[in-house]
UniProtKB/TrEMBL annotation:
Transmembrane spans: 39-60, 81-104, 110-127, 139-162, 182-203, 252-276, 296-315, 327-346, 352-375, 395-415, 427-445
PROSITE patterns: MFS
UniProt membrane topology term: Multi-pass membrane protein
Phylogenetic classification of the source organism: Eukaryota, Viridiplantae, Streptophyta, Embryophyta, Tracheophyta
Principal place of residence: membrane
InterPro entries cross-referenced by the UniProt entry: MFS (IPR011701), MFS_dom (IPR020846), MFS_trans_sf (IPR036259)
Cellular component terms per the entry's GO annotation: membrane
Listed name of the protein: Major facilitator superfamily (MFS) profile domain-containing protein
Keywords assigned: Membrane, Transmembrane, Transmembrane helix, Transport
Record organism: Urochloa decumbens
Compartments reported by the entry: Membrane
Occurrences of domain Major facilitator superfamily (MFS) profile (ranges): 1-452
Length: 458
């Protein structure tokens, strides 16, 4: 793989000795990967659909417990956490649809996020079910489930909400769906959760459970192999003796910071884009309707799915992780400078240009986010991977919580300074977004971003 610094981010310790311990699910997965070098599309789809049905969780609840779920996943395994959180999604999503008071709706959404610890676990799982050369596509597919959820979620809600009004011949006002007008879309999602929950029966575990130092418990063949290569095997699998604090692991934390900056930029951009697009042209906006904005978001979501599935893995392979991130951030900066002049375009060129810019901007964000995921997972041993992803999820949630409020305040200020002589309001808004992206670009260089020199066995 070309790309200079990016090469160092790929796993260097994935050439494992031929030692597989009976009864260890992690070893079973390693054997499976060794025997099947192809891309595990079945397991990728499984993780994709699990993430799809659980990615609408309440942000605060998720921020409070992501680290806890990560620690638990590193102790008892990935599969139990995925099962528990999918079950919680089923239960509390159903209760949300049965809410009759505002406090009940808020409480169930909070608990849905509080008990949803699959996000960080799924990211760890995605890199553990495949060989290193497939990490990019594995984490890309995890991200596409979010893009699909942004399309499918509102569609299900809009189509199935208030069924007694939309389908009076099927649902009477005296029925359960008449009393709870938003229960049907929630029930529909819960049914999907139930199907996914049942499918988890066949989801293989990836966490190693064998004890390396209990050599007397192994079969003679394994013991002989262990003794003949004990130093190398201990180097790769006995990570518990080498674990260091995650918060002092700078390769990990620096990649998490890059991830958080990118998420802040993306959330602020998403907030500003909708406000700017729907504002009047006299304020530097586009005078779009909410339907116009929705169409742009649908096109963007579908494009991200295609990009991350078929294009991004090849870009990462050719350029490397770091160079891919740098190219993406530079492209993002250039795009943001083109947004204010779009207000002078007329249809149909306006719609075409806005859609193209939105797609390219979102693909740029997806590139940096996925690269940072790979860096994070390659910066820690397996028994810390879910915890590391939990830390990343918690910090990301906090950054995303502040971004919309900050973006809204800046946009409101910009509306009042549209006729300023230097940097009119709309230009100032996108200039400030560019400053964030510039900081993001700077962070991809040393000494800020510390690329892991070697990574643990997965």
């Amino acid at each position: 793989m070309a790309g200079g610094e990016g090469e160092a981010a790929w796993p260097l310790l994935d050439e494992k000795p031929d030692v597989y311990f009976d009864g260890c699910p992690g070893c079973a997965m390693e054997r499976r990967k060794a025997e099947n070098p192809g891309i595990p599309y079945g397991l990728f789809f499984h993780t994709w659909i699990i993430n799809l049905v659980t990615c609408a969780s309440y942000m605060l609840g998720r921020a409070l417990t992501s680290i806890f779920w990560g620690i638990l996943a590193d102790r008892i395994g990935r599969k139990p956490i995925i099962v528990i959180t999918t079950l919680s999604s089923l239960v509390f999503n159903t209760l949300f649809g049965l809410s009759v008071h505002y406090w009940m709706a808020i409480s169930t959404r909070f608990l849905l996020g509080f008990l949803n610890g699959s996000l960080g676990t799924i990211r760890a799982y995605a890199v553990e079910v495949c060989r290193p050369e497939h990490h990019a596509i594995g984490l890309s597919l995890v991200n596409t489930s979010w893009a699909i959820a942004l399309i499918i979620g509102p569609a299900i809600g809009g189509y199935f909400a208030q069924p007694t009004e939309k389908f009076p011949n099927l649902f009477s006002t005296d029925s359960l769906f008449g009393r709870f007008p938003y229960f049907l879309p929630c029930l529909f999602i819960s049914i999907i959760c139930f199907v996914v929950l049942i499918s988890c029966i066949w989801l293989p575990e990836t966490l190693h459970t064998h004890k390396v130092h209990n050599k007397e418990d192994q079969h003679p063949e394994s013991l002989i192999t262990y003794l003949s290569d004990s130093k190398e095997f201990d180097k790769q699998c006995s990570t518990s003796t080498k674990n260091k604090g995650l918060l002092t692991n700078w390769p990990l934390m620096s990649s998490i910071i890059l991830f958080c900056i990118t998420c802040f930029d993306d959330m602020a951009y998403s907030e500003i884009f909708s406000l700017w697009a729907e504002s009047d042209k006299k304020y530097g906006g586009l005078s779009f309707s909410s339907e116009d904005v929705g169409n742009v978001l649908v096109v963007t979501g579908a494009s991200i799915l295609l990009y991350q599935t078929f294009i991004y893995p090849h870009i990462a392979q050719v350029l490397g992780l770091i160079n891919s991130s740098r190219v993406a951030t530079i492209l993002s900066m250039v795009l943001l400078f083109t947004y204010p002049p779009m207000a002078y375009l007329s249809r149909p060129w306006l719609s075409i240009v806005v859609n193209v810019a939105s797609v390219l901007k979102s693909c740029s964000v997806a590139t940096v986010v996925t690269c940072s995921f790979i860096l994070q997972n390659n910066s820690v041993p397996q028994d810390q991977r879910a915890t590391a992803n939990g830390i990343a999820t918690t910090l990301m949630s906090l950054f995303k919580a502040f971004a919309p409020a900050g973006a809204g305040i800046v946009f409101s200020w910009a509306q009042k300074h549209q006729h300023a002589s230097i940097f009119p309001g709309d230009q100032m808004v996108f200039f400030l977004l560019d400053v964030v992206v510039l900081f993001e670009l700077i962070w991809t260089f040393k000494p800020f971003l510390d690329i892991p020199k070697q990574t643990s066995s997965s």
